[in-house]
Design goal:
Order of helices and strands: EHHEHEHEHEEEHEHEEHHHHEHEEEH
Strand content: 15-25%
Low-confidence stretches: none
Largest sheet: 7 strands, mixed
Number of strands: 14
CATH architecture of the largest domain: 3-Layer(aba) Sandwich
Number of domains: 2
CATH topology of the largest domain: Aspartate Aminotransferase, domain 2
Structural class: alpha/beta
Mean pLDDT: 97
Bound molecules: pyridoxal-5'-phosphate
Helix content: 40-55%
CATH class of the largest domain: Alpha Beta
Length: 367
C-alpha cells in the first residue's frame, strides 16, 4: 500500500522526533485548505475529541488545545496562560525539562519556587506537602511525568494527589509519556496535561497540545504573557470551529490524525505500553549482555528511554555512536551532569525484533 514511501536509512532511537510509520509519512503527501469542514471539522476537531478520550474516562469535563511549535512551546503557552498575575508556581524538578520550566517561569515573570532533586532521585510526597504548607502563596504545581533526561518515571498520581489535597492546580508535562503509558487525568486530578505530536502518539514534529480541565481553562482569559502563545485565545478560536488562530501546520496535523488511528489499530494505549515495555526489556537484557549497565534501578525506570553508563573510562561515545549509526540505528547522547551516560529510546515505530537486532550489533561493535 505504501510502496512509494521510502524506507528510512536508519531507525531513530531518539525520543522525539522518532521513527514514524510509512502510513504516517504517506499522510503528509497532500495539501489542505484550512477554511473548510474537511480540514477543520474532520481533522482538527476529530483530533481534539480523540485526545480528550485518550486522556480521560469522563471526557465531557476536558478539552484539548493544539498549539504550533515543538513541545516546549506548549509548555510555555500553558505556564504563561494558566497562572494568573498574582499566582505562584511550584516547579518540582529532577532533570532538564523541569529546569526548562523554571527558565520559562523566570523569562515570563511568573512568581515561582523550585523543589529540586538530583537527576536520579524521585520527588517525594512528604517534601511536596512541607513546601505547600510553608508557602501558602503557591497556587499551581507543575511536574514532568517521564523525565526524558534520564528516563525516570516520576510519581505523577501521588504528587497530583497532594496538589489536589491542598487545593492547588496541577500541570503535568507528560510530553514523553502521554499515549504510551496508560493514565486517566480525571482520576489523577491533573488540570492541564501537555504533550506533543512527535512522542508516544508517533506523529511527525510541528505542533503540541494541552488537554485541559474545561472549567479551569475557562478561568484563564487575560492571563497570557504572550500573544502567539495565548492558550486561552487559541482554545476559544479552535473550540468554535476547529480553526487555528495563525497558520496551521496542516500536513503535520493530518499525519497526526493518521497516527491516532494507528494507535487505535494497535489496540490503544495499553497495547502500545505493552510494546514499549517489551522493547525496553529486550534492550536492557541485550545491553547487559554486551557489557553495559543502566543508570537507574528498574523500579523508577520508564519504558520510554533508558540511560546507560559508559562501560569504561576510555569508552569513546562518538566512535560508538557512528559505528551504530552506520549499521542502521541512531542513539541519543546523555544529558545528565553527574555521570557519563548515553540514552536509547524505545518509543516510535520500533519493535522488539528491532531492539534485539540493535543489541546484537552493539555486542559486535563492542568486541
Ligand atoms: C520532548 C520533551 C519536551 C519538549 O521538547 P521539545 O524539544 O520542545 O519538543 C518537554 N518535556 C519533556 C519531558 C520532553 O520529553
Amino acid at each position: 500500500m505504501y510502496e512509494n514511501i521510502p524506507d528510512n536509512p536508519y531507525l531513530l532511537l531518539t525520543p522525539g522526533p522518532l521513527s514514524t510509520s510509512k502510513g504516517v509519512r504517506a499522510a503528509l503527501l497532500r495539501d489542505w485548505c484550512t477554511w473548510d469542514r474537511d480540514y477543520n471539522e474532520e481533522i482538527v476537531q476529530a483530533i481534539r475529541r480523540k485526545l480528550v478520550r485518550l486522556a480521560a474516562r469522563q471526557p465531557e469535563e476536558y478539552t484539548a488545545v493544539l498549539m504550533q511549535g515543538s513541545g516546549s512551546f506548549a509548555v510555555e503557552a500553558c505556564l504563561g496562560s494558566v497562572i494568573p498575575k498574582d499566582g505562584k508556581l511550584l516547579i518540582i524538578a529532577n532533570g532538564a525539562y523541569g529546569a526548562r520550566m523554571e527558565k520559562m517561569a523566570e523569562v515570563l515573570g511568573i512568581s515561582h519556587t523550585v523543589l529540586e532533586y538530583s537527576e536520579t532521585a524521585v520527588p517525594g510526597v512528604s517534601e511536596v506537602k512541607i513546601t505547600l504548607e510553608r508557602d501558602p502563596a503557591i497556587t499551581h504545581v507543575a511536574m514532568v511525568h517521564c523525565e526524558t533526561t534520564t528516563g525516570i518515571l516520576n510519581p505523577l498520581r501521588e504528587i497530583a494527589g497532594v496538589a489536589k489535597q491542598y487545593g492547588k492546580i496541577f500541570i503535568a508535562d507528560a510530553m514523553s509519556s502521554f499515549g504510551g503509558i496508560p493514565m486517566d487525568i480525571g482520576e489523577m486530578g491533573i488540570d492541564f496535561l501537555i504533550s506533543s505530536a512527535n512522542k508516544c502518539i508517533q506523529g511527525v514534529p510541528g505542533f503540541a497540545f494541552v488537554i485541559a480541565n474545561r472549567a479551569r481553562l475557562e478561568e484563564c482569559g487575560g492571563n497570557a504573557r504572550s500573544h502567539s502563545l495565548d492558550l486561552y485565545d487559541q482554545w476559544r478560536c479552535m473550540d468554535a470551529a476547529g480553526k487555528w488562530r495563525f497558520t496551521s501546520p496542516t500536513h503535520v496535523v493530518r499525519a497526526f490524525l493518521k497516527a491516532l488511528i494507528e494507535l487505535d489499530d494497535e489496540g490503544g494505549v495499553a497495547a502500545r505500553y505493552g510494546r514499549y515495555c517489551e522493547n525496553h526489556s529486550a534492550l536492557v537484557e541485550g545491553m547487559e549482555h554486551a557489557g553495559f549497565e543502566t543508570l537507574l534501578p528498574p523500579e523508577i525506570q520508564s519504558p520510554v528511554i533508558t540511560s546507560f553508563r559508559y562501560p569504561a573510562a576510555h569508552f569513546e561515545f562518538n566512535w560508538f555512536y557512528e559505528a551504530i549509526k552506520e549499521r542502521g540505528y541512531v542513539l541519543y547522547p546523555g544529558k545528565i551532569s553527574q555521570e557519563d551516560t548515553f540514552r536509547i529510546g524505545t518509543i516510535g515505530e520500533v519493535y522488539p525484533r528491532d531492539i534485539k537486532k540493535l543489541t546484537e550489533i552493539v555486542w559486535e561493535v563492542m568486541q
